[in-house]
UniProtKB/TrEMBL annotation:
TM region positions: 118-141, 147-171, 178-196, 216-234, 255-281, 293-317, 329-348, 360-382, 394-421, 433-453
Domain PTS EIIC type-1 per the UniProt entry, residue ranges: 109-462
Key words, A-Z: Cell membrane, Kinase, Membrane, Phosphotransferase system, Sugar transport, Transferase, Transmembrane, Transmembrane helix, Transport
UniProt name for this protein: Beta-xylosidase
Subcellular location: Cell membrane
An annotated Gene Ontology molecular function: kinase activity
InterPro entries the record matches: Glu_permease_IIB (IPR036878), PTrfase_EIIB_Cys (IPR018113), PTS_EIIC (IPR003352), PTS_EIIC_1 (IPR013013), PTS_IIB_1 (IPR001996), PTS_Sugar-Specific_Components (IPR050558)
GO biological process, one term: phosphoenolpyruvate-dependent sugar phosphotransferase system
PROSITE patterns documented for this protein: PTS_EIIB_TYPE_1, PTS_EIIB_TYPE_1_CYS, PTS_EIIC_TYPE_1
Entry keyword annotation includes Manganese: no
Length: 462
């Protein structure tokens, strides 16, 4: 696959450089924000070699590439001069929705752009934390050793400074300087603020008024809202501040105003809402974990197909940072193995060389926690396979709920096994239940797909 040519073709079919506001990518997709959606030639994009699928959703034009998306994006970035555009507040004006669906798309798009860039760091950190817990449980490393301290600190750094990472990512989405948002987020995790938050009173007196201070390390939503407010503040200040002093005055005013707003209003309110959401999810799954797990595992792949899963990913991160564990992420991990089992059955049964190659590669990607190659390369194209995988995931998800399976880290699939080791108590029944549910999902999906979900079409082998 000629990645440079593919990038050129995609940019042309999305409407050309002039039609593209901004572009970014996640683990498997190119995501474009465009001026005029009518210029996007979806059918032609899907015909390109190297493109698995095309999705329109969340205010974005999404081109599913697969595991080579990073290399293709680099070519796209070269065509669009993406680094300069990322700094341009003029280019990144927020969309003006005209309907409820439009507002919903903008919200989902904002959450997606804010959380996507940090997912890999959180997943990697979670795996390391789990592995270190396992090693200490077996007595292979002492928890009071400098080596353990160092590796554990490295793993937790991304979580501790999560507001800074989120602030930088959200800044690019809302058209405000990433450096301004990093400075504001730095205030939230500054030792002075965390000390006040952890004190008995937990109050800061500003202008004669006492404000409650929360520990914002590990937080997700406050900086997303702060960046949204910052986008409007930036455009207003750039209009009213004289050009002669703009470069000096605007950043300083933005940091001061946004820091004050975050500490006194945005932070406390959004943290309260986020805690309520986390509590609501916990209560919902506790009410009926079997039904909740079954439905979640069965229908989550549908959300992935339409690019609507990122708000749930944001909630999972919120859940992990507030409660320390996530049942929702455990269900996500289980369904990954169900999909892998179904796709592996196709790989074993088919005589079509191209489909076999795609299916084997998608299986490997899926057990590593990346699902789009399997979903768009196989499930979307073979409906019976999708049905069998859905049945298997429904059953496995229900079993995971019945066993109260919990994930203590962000990573899932087989590579995320360490996320199911309790960071406090080490290896418990939860780790055993991880293997029962995950292997069960894989085997059940494989059997159902092999027997009922896929019939190889003779004469199409190549």
């Amino acid at each position: 696959m000629d990645k440079k040519q593919l990038a050129q073709d995609i940019v042309r079919l999305v409407g050309g450089k002039e039609n593209i506001d901004n572009a970014l990518h996640c683990i498997t997709r190119l995501r474009f924000y465009v001026h005029d959606e009518t210029l996007v030639q979806a059918n032609e994009i899907e015909k390109l070699e190297g493109v698995l699928s095309f999705i329109k959703g969340n205010g974005q034009q999404q081109v599913v590439i697969g595991n080579q998306v990073g290399e293709v994006f680099n070519e796209v970035a070269g065509i669009l001069n993406i680094e300069n555009k990322a700094q341009s507040t003029e280019e990144l004006k927020p969309e003006t929705p005209k309907s409820f669906v439009g507002y919903l798309n903008v919200l989902v798009g904002a959450l997606t752009a804010s959380i996507q860039p940090v997912v890999g760091l959180l997943a990697g950190g979670g795996i390391i934390i789990g592995l270190m817990t396992a090693l200490s449980t077996f007595g292979w490393i002492a928890t009071d050793s400098d080596l353990y301290m160092f590796i554990d600190t490295v793993a937790r750094a991304s979580f501790h400074y999560l507001p800074v990472l989120i602030g930088i990512a959200a800044a690019k989405r809302f058209g405000v300087s990433p450096y301004v948002m990093a400075a504001v987020a730095g205030l939230l995790v500054h030792p002075t603020i965390t000390t006040i938050a952890d004190s008995e009173a937990g109050l800061i007196n500003l202008f004669g008024i006492n404000f409650g201070v929360t520990n914002y390390t590990y937080s997700v939503f406050p900086m997303i809202v702060a960046a949204w407010v910052g986008g409007y503040l930036d455009r207003y200040l750039n209009k009213v501040v004289p050009n002669v002093i703009k470069s000096l005055v605007v950043p300083v005013l933005e940091v001061l105003i946004l820091s004050l707003l975050v500490i006194t209003i945005v932070g406390p309110v959004i943290t309260l809402i986020a805690s309520g959401i986390a509590y609501g999810i916990e209560v919902g799954f506790a009410f009926s974990p079997i039904i909740g797990g079954a439905l979640y595992a069965a229908f989550f792949p549908l959300l992935v197909m339409f690019g609507m899963h990122w708000p749930l990913i944001t909630l999972i991160v919120n859940d992990l940072t507030i409660t320390g564990y996530s049942m929702m992420n455990a269900f996500s991990s289980v369904l990954m193995l169900g999909i892998a089992g179904g796709v592996f059955a196709v790989a074993i049964k088919t005589s079509q060389l191209k489909l076999k190659q795609i299916s084997f590669a998608a299986t490997l990607s899926q057990v590593c926690g990346v699902g789009e190659p399997a979903i768009f390369g196989v499930l979307v194209k073979y409906k019976k396979v999708f049905y069998m995988v859905t049945i298997a995931n429904f059953i496995a998800g229900g079993l995971a709920g019945a066993l109260n399976l919990l994930s203590y880290g962000f990573a899932g699939g087989l590579v995320g096994f360490a996320s199911f080791i309790d960071p406090v108590n080490g290896i418990t029944a939860n780790f055993t239940n991880y293997w029962i549910t995950h292997l069960g999902a894989f085997v059940l999906a494989f059997i159902l797909t092999y027997l009922f979900g896929f019939k190889d079409e003779k004469g199409l082998a190549d």
